[in-house]
Every structure is written in C-alpha cells, then in structure tokens.
Amino acid sequence: MSDPSPVPDAARAVRPVHRARTVAAVLCGLEAVALVAFAGFYVYELALGLGTDPARVVMSAVLIVLAAAGLAVLARGWLRWTRWPRTPTVVWHLLLVPVGWSVAQAGRPGLGAAVLAVALVALGAAYVAPRPDDTDADPV
Questions:
Q1: Structure letter (DSSP) for residue 38
Q2: pTM (2 d.p.)
Q3: What is the pLDDT along the chain (140 residues), one digit of tens a residue?
Q4: Angle made by CA atoms 39, 99, 58, in degrees to the nearest 5
Q5: CA distances (Å), 104 to each of 30, 94, 97, in order?
Q6: CA-CA distance, 59 to 75, in Å (whole number)?
C-alpha cells in the first residue's frame, strides 16, 4: 500500500479573513443566541402560568427559534466565505431599524439604541464585506 498523494498547496490555502465578514458573522450569531434565549424565556413564562394563551406562546416561541436558526445559518455563511449571506443580512437588519426605533419610543431607550446600533453596524459590515469572487479584496 502506498501513501495517498499529498494535498496540493492550493487546496490547503486558508480563506482570507476580512473584518467586515467576521463582524457580520458575530452579530448574526449573537442575535441568534439572543433569540433562542428570548424563546426560552417565553416558554419559561408559560410554564409558570403567566401566558394567557398557550398555543400562541408556543407558536411564537417556535417562530422565534426559526428566526434564530436562520441567523445562525447566516453567521455560518459569512464565516465560510460564501457569497449569498449579504442580501438576507441586509433585509433582516433593515427590518430591525424600525423595531429599534419603536422600542426606544416605547420607553426603553437603552434597548432601542442597542437594537439600532446592532442593525446599523451589521448593515455597514454587510455592505463593505467583500464577496468570495472579489479578487481585489484586501483581507484586512
């Protein structure tokens, strides 16, 4: 038996790391974790008997977990240097801008400002992040 042929250097090449892609991935990942925690809190309240409509609480928790799964997939896409996560990241964070604004208007200015800050930073990161086929992208 002979040893398998060595892997060519080009196949071992590490994908370049770009700060904007990393920022977008980290923010999407943190949002996914926050949503899972929020869904868990929703179910916890239901277990304590604080929910008025169990079916609505469970369905809301399921929907929140599905959104978290989508954000986790986005984070993975950013880290794997794929091309597709830019548009869904922009859409999600554009939707968060009015959410942050209305949370701030509803008497929670700190939370609203945090949501707005995350949305704007993620939008900026998605905008400046190079695509995998950008040959002139500077891996900074």
A1: H
A2: 0.81
A3: 555 555 454 444 445 568 999 999 999 999 999 999 999 999 998 888 887 788 998 999 999 999 999 999 999 999 998 989 999 999 999 999 999 999 999 999 999 999 999 999 999 999 999 888 765 555 55
A4: 20
A5: 20, 16, 11
A6: 24
